[in-house]
Amino acid sequence: GDHGCEYMTGGSVIVLGAIGRNFGAGMSGGLSFLYDPNEVARHHINAELLTLKKGIEASDESLVWEQLEEHLRLTGSPLARRILERWPSERTHFLTIVPTAYQALRQAEDLLSDHEPRVQREREIAIMP
Prior knowledge:
single chain
């Protein structure tokens, strides 16, 4: 429908159906994964405030997989079953939607975690007698 994920501040959402206009308006946090095999969703999203990425990043794959499994278990969804059964090809039909400011924060956290082992070694060296 219209205004999906409006004012979303955290968490994650997987949308397997069509979206309406103004998707993600006011979205400041969290992740949305839109199943978009016909590549029409981007026409309903404000790309000035949201970062759209084709596919699912490796770091988010288990999140999407587990939520799809839970959806299938609870609803028996034939679409969720098909996506899971054909995961290598179907995963490419998702759009990952992230608020631009939130994406910058995630990138900064990734950068810091890349340097964490070096920082930890420097701390250990600094406290050695």
